[in-house]
Specification:
mainly beta, Immunoglobulin-like, four-stranded antiparallel β-sheet, Ig-like_fold, OBSCN protein, disulfide bond, phosphoprotein
Length: 86
């Protein structure tokens, strides 16, 4: 059984202007088969034309495109029992 990954680089708060993209990044101690999930408040985010979710090795990124005031709030990243929020 693989040891559980830990979050080695936590999310940082991002301030941006309306209409710009907001980029959130989290880095894990290892690549993991566990599903990682991004949330805006309590709403799980999917990759679509407004949100881009990327995984490159241990780095997990979320790009919110052309943010609006409605996008203001808490972003969280969860994998297994771990979570980080900004």
């Amino acid at each position: 059984e693989e040891p559980a990954a830990t979050i080695v680089e936590r999310l940082k708060d991002v301030a941006t202007y309306e209409g710009e993209d907001a980029v959130f990044e989290c880095r894990l101690s290892q690549e993991t088969a566990q599903d990682a999930q991004w949330f805006l408040g309590d709403v799980p985010l999917q990759s679509n034309e407004m949100n881009e979710i990327r995984v490159q090795g241990t780095r997990h990124s979320l790009i919110l495109r052309k943010v609006t005031l409605e996008d203001c709030g808490s972003i969280s990243f969860k994998v297994g029992q771990l979570s980080s929020a900004a």
